[in-house]
Amino acid sequence: MDLLHSQLAVLQQKLSFVATDPIDWKFYVQAFSWGVTLFESYLLLRQYPLYSKTSPPEVLADHFDAKAFTKSQNYGKDKAKFSLVTGLFKQALDSAMLHYGLYAFAWDMGGRMIAYFGYGSEYEILQSLAFAIVLFVISSIPSIPLSAYQTFVLEEKHGFNKTTPTLFVTDLLKSWAIGFIIGMPFLAAFLYVFGWAGDRFVPWLMAFLLAFQIIMVIIYPTVIQPLFNKLSPLKEGELRTRTESLATKLKFPLKHLYEIDGSKRSSHSNAYFFGLPWSKHIVIFDTLIKESKPDEVEAVLAHELGHWYHMHPTKLLCVSQVHIFTILAMFPAFLHAPQFLRAFDFSEASLCPPTNHRCILAIPEAIIGIGLNFLSRQFEWEADRFACEIQERLSAPEMKDMGERLSRALITLHVKNLSTLWVDWLYSAYHHSHPTLTERLKALQAFQAKMDSAAKKEL
Q: Are the C-beta atoms of 409 and 299 separated by less than 8 Å?
């Protein structure tokens, strides 16, 4: 532990310029955030002409008829327009909040709120909680019309929306309530650990955040998700039999197998698993069950179980811990730099609480996001390969066509979800955590050909 703190001390010395050099932090944050937004707009403009193509990629030509392809192109075009406008709007809003000192205003307003109840500025945790509430209200209200437009205009136009106005409002209020019930105690505990640990807060906050993530793995599916969707045991039948047999053969610790009413809000479909290492749950969207054959759904689940087999969730958790550690390690340099906060219009009285440093965290996130997408795509390739090779792993010749089944399932999902087929490489690298359908189909064909070739050699 002493070695860790000594290395962190060295890092703080290298970042000491934050507390001494006269840097116009507001200008640099504004410039960087606008740079990211304009780059994202540029990527959309690179992608947009591809929605004018009149035929699908060659590898998909036999799977998409003209009507389905046209619908996919129109949906992509409308989403791109919406993303371009909302991206610029949200950036303009964030920029205005920063320029006109809305963060400092929210902090002062939080102080006045707790003062009304007889608490002074020495109650930093209470003021930070009030600050978070004020900032949430200020930033959330403008996004409500955008969300409503996306749901009731864009998604409705292309046949995906199943959400009623009542359900939309109910979901919004539920999400706010959950954010308050979970977010406020979390923030209070975070700040308490921060204050209690003093300058050696990094490992303690790391432990706290890891514990919180594990708790949420348990709480979300059992407490939070049922507030929005109904999880029902998957009915007896071919799909249930196939899924349980696959889980047993792979020694996947399946505890529950659910069907979720995703069609309640949208006609998009998917499948996933969650849970602790010794107790896993598989969830299949009712839309996926309706749109795909049982053997195709089994192939999708084989892909998902490939993520489990190769420990991808655990690896991503470890990467996230490195990410969090990097942020926390740099944090003290800004914490002890009063001029940094003054650059964002905070007064001398508000120079201590760490809540106010949130604006600087956006700077490295765009770069880190590209790296995480690259890693996620590697995991997707690996899970696809697992599905193709599952016949060898289980000595199950009846699964030799798993790659072909997964290909059919992916095509069905893309047809039903009107997913984009033509994708610019740079746009995909920045935005997509999954390879494109064209890339995945080509890889699946290569995997399957390799398996067939190996089988012939054995004969």
A: yes
Q: Is residue 281 classed as helix, strand or coil in its secondary structure?
A: strand
Residues 6+ apart with CB under 8 A from 345: 101, 103, 104
Tokens 């926390």, residue located: 328
- What is the per-residue pLDDT across 277-307, written as a single tens digit (0 to 9) for each? 888 889 999 888 888 899 999 999 999 999 9
CA nearest 323: which of 357, 381, 372?
372
Q: Taking residues 182-211, report their average pLDDT.
A: 88
Task: Give tens-digit pLDDT for 143-153.
Answer: 999 999 999 99
Tokens representing residue 407 in the block: 């290909």
> Listing from the earlier edge strand, what are the strands of the sheet with 231-233?
231-233, 254-260, 279-285, 271-276
Give the annotated binding-site residues: 303, 307, 380
Structure tokens at 149: 């437009």
Burial of 110 (0-12, 13-18, 19+ CB in 10 A): buried
Which positions make up the binding site for Zn(2+)? 303, 307, 380
295: its two tokens? 């053997």
Element of type H or E holding 88: helix 66-99
Closest CA to 418 of 80, 99, 130: 80
Mean pLDDT for 27-32 is 87
Which residues make beta-bridge pairs with 281? 256, 274
Catalytic residue (one of 124, 295, 384, 389): 384
Residue type, 368: I
Which tokens belong to 223? Answer: 């407490």
Measured CA to CA, the distance from residue 9 to residue 199 in angstroms comes to 10
pTM of the model: 0.83
Active-site residue, selected from the candidate residues 155, 304, 345, 439: 304
Judge whether 384 counts as a catalytic residue.
yes
- The percentage of residues in the chain with a pLDDT greater than 70, rounded to a whole number, is 92
Q: Give the separation between CA 134 and CA 132, rounded to whole angstroms.
A: 6
Domain ranges of the chain: 1-64+292-459
